[in-house]
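I'd like us to work through together how a protein chain folds, taking it slowly. We need material for that, and I hope you will provide a protein of your own picking. Go ahead whenever you are ready, and we will take it from there:
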Amino acid sequence: MKGKRRRRTTVGRGVPALALGLTLIAGLCVTATGTAAADDPSYAFRNPKLSVDRRVDDLLARLTLDEKISLLHQYQPAIPRLGIQSFKTGTEALHGVAWLGETTVFPQAVGLASTWDPALMKKVGAAVGDEARGFQQERPAGWGLNLWAPVVNPLRDPRWGRNEEGYSEDPYLTSSMAIAYGTGLTGGDPDHLKTAPTLKHFLGNNNEVDRTTTSSDLRPRVLKEYEEPAFRPAIEADAVTGVMSSYNLVNGRPATVDPALDDVRTWTSHDLLNVTDAHAPNNLTGTGSQKYYATLTEGNAATLKAGIDSFTTDDTNSVRTTTAIKSAVSTGLLKESDVDTAAGHILSIRVRLGEFDPGGGKYGSIDKSVINSPAHQKLARKAAADAAVLLKNSGATLPLKSSASQDMAVVGPLADTLYTDWYSGTLPYAVTPKEGIAAKLGTSVASSEGVDRITLKNAESGTYVTAGTDADGEVLKESASSGAEAQFDVFDWGSGIVTLRSAANGKYVGYNWSNFVNDQAQPNGWFVQQQFALEAQADGTHLLRYAGYETREPWWSNPVYLGPAGDDGTLGLVTKAEAARYTKDIVRSGVEEAVAAVKNKDAAVVVVGSMPAINGRENDDREDMGLAPSQEALVKAVRAANPKTVVVVENSYPTTLGALQKEVPALLWTTHAGQETGNALADVLFGDVNPAGRLTQTWYESEADLPSILEYDNIKHDRTYQYFKGDPLYEFGYGLSYSSFRYGKLKRFDDGYEVAVTNTGKRAGDEVVQLYTHQRVSRDKQPLKQLEAFQRVSLKPGQTKTVKLRLTTKDLAHWDVTRSKWVVESGTYDVLVGASSEDIRSRTSLKVRGETIPARDLSRPTRAENFDDYEGVRLVDESKVRGTAVGASADGAWLKFADAQLGSGAAKFSARVAGAAGKVEIRLGSPTGTLIGTAKASGTGSVYTYETVNASLSAAAKGRQDVYLVLSEGQRLSTFSLR
């Protein structure tokens, strides 16, 4: 369905044309004579009593074409003659306002979702929205209220570098959290917005490596059943005000020009403001990575027509964007009405934000006093505590005793630090795990980071790598000194990557494009230039390799090894042959220090995990999901030294824990949880908070359980808990409590099911009650289980509550590819309720009188993308504007169209094909089954030029059959029929 595109230059809904016309004429007249102020309240667009549409229409009518075009870039200039200030789209707000200074930093998004608590999520969203308002009031022209959050890409693969930004591998849980967070951000009134949140990243965005050139194949069922359900509900609920297009291609077409961007407008009656991701418009052209259009003029025109309103590119410089759009209008690629449409969407948001209302509208009085307020600090602590997931607790190791007489140790590389991610705000303060535990006990605790302190001695010259001693550090050199300036703490992050912190000043060593300097408080920056590798050599020495992310870029041409590059011993980049060979001498063993700290203690807490800028992040996927080798060794040593060892895993993704899961008595997972991390962990570890976080993703035993990260077809490749047939380390929805809960019998009520849940433990606690369904028999492959509803419920010891979970027959629908529609099949459905996707406590069945999917009718033109199964094909763009075709990656690639009714006999096969010369074989039963016809294609010379090919069919082409089309390499198939 084509998206709704209102013609903003026409009269708004319910507005008398004559009245609007007189308003416009009057306003234009006073402006022309200079008797009205630029912000004259007589302008209709400044009248809050009028409808949003009427106000937008009024303002559009006052703008020149150039002024309207100027609104289409991220940085919209002021229009002084109308008293309109500048406006910026895009303030990051993933788990707090980011990049504007100190602000309340909440847990990462995947942590927030682990609360399974939409009510809490809404409160967090409201706090973030308030703080965005506080910043904006301080600097109205520079800090915008169009927020780029939440991220709703389903977390189908835990190796995705941006896993921490999303909510869950399940689209229903994802959308539930997005609605809650978005409603908090907007204030809940779509006509009077606190902020204007934007869903990221539309569509099919779950890999970072080569993200601008890889294509996400989204067959119709995956699109309709998995991708869209993560985005659509928040838009339907008016919890967000637009989407951001993703960098990748979808079915061969850049997402920046995907016509689905306009189709989303049909999901709501309110205007949406759709934006591109940063610099994505430039990727489209011949000079960009995608090379989809020859010129920026063509690319920008296509982008606007596809449904984008605001171009995020070239930072603050809008010249290239506006020049290209002006050119597109003058050459006929765009009409002024196209510009009006996009500008109207933008102005609708600005009107609803109260920009043109007296005093800034409903939320105009919110000031910077809300930023990091005591109430928000308290909320951040609660969110961090409620997000923690107890993975293991054998022998009731937890909770720990919280008396001051407890003698404890807190060790590990994350024990006394907090890390932030790329989209985090600036921490106003940081309570580390060590500090939180010490505060809880009211006494000091023993501690060690458990990392080795080393020296690097040049095996040839006998000199040491040395760093500066002052706060700003100095350029690294080799010298005779072996003191503190020659000592470095080595943090192992896995995959061979380490960071080096100078013992001389406590700063990390990094590259500044010319030298190596110990001047960074933490690893940071886009290229994270504090990454190194110590490569062991056969003779026992090591080469020191620089491993900043820029070294992976195609434009990087420098060598990557370190060695003396000047007469004074200054270290520089040299070839491997020129690299210095260093002996790595341990000054202080991290493991030995940690073991000494935990021996004879009442309990030991080991905090291990990830560095968000290194272990996967934007532009870089994870290579593995395990703990770093040195972290594993540390945990094993501490466990051997103290049997009461609690391991806290602090990272942003499912982790393959290996033998550690069996060896330690207690495991707790938390994401990087913001400023209150330490206090929240202490609350959970000592039992002030009963843990009730639940996993929002499957934790796999190993990477071998996963297909390629580029395989987006969950159904065929058995991804996520819905289709995974193996045994997970921890299943979706899993999490333990200090209490126990008993479930009663699952009972049907009008709108769903209810179950009595009783707290049978001695502590008050929360249980997350989860409702799943499974379709027993279907024409199509169905999920093993599918989450339909959930509720986090608080129960005192002995208390019973009846939990109602909504489920309607509409929720049981799946996408029928034979007719391109939603269908609820007749049959029996299992209804399951429990504490996780595997821990089912009660079940019943539901008999549904729905539809029986009829046999396929291939006599009508059938889209090739509507196959039932396939091998050796890719989904590709049928044209640069709209439509999906199927492309063969190799000879013998095939498509299956199951249960086709050929009747008494089909005589002719016809198909639209493009691309290479070859043949299309029509077979029955299998890709090598009975051949009933062959259509030969001469080749069109272009993947967008189609020819019709035909073939006569044999007498075997009759009855109900599974039809297979076998293709030649390089062919594209759009539609076909058998008649």
